[in-house]
Amino acid sequence: MLLSPAIQDYLKVIFTIQEEHSLVTTNDIARALKVSETFVTGLIKRLDQMQLVVHES
Q1: Which of 5, 10, 25, 33 is the most buried (most CB within 10 A)?
Q2: Does the pLDDT at position 1 exceed 80?
Q3: Which ranges of 2-55 would DSSP assign to H, the alpha helix?
Q4: Is-above-0.85 flag for pTM?
Q5: From CA 25, how far away is CA 23, in angstroms rounded?
């Protein structure tokens, strides 16, 4: 599976945050990437569909 550079960046940020905290929130990701939480939520749902992350509401 080829992943776009943007998706790779998101996964790296998630991994980095997860090393420090067991739970990664959309707010954590949005703050790290300086994007809106709404945008992150949409992408996380997409990553969940791709089975790259587990998203819990």
Answers
A1: 10
A2: no
A3: 5-20, 26-33, 37-49
A4: no
A5: 6
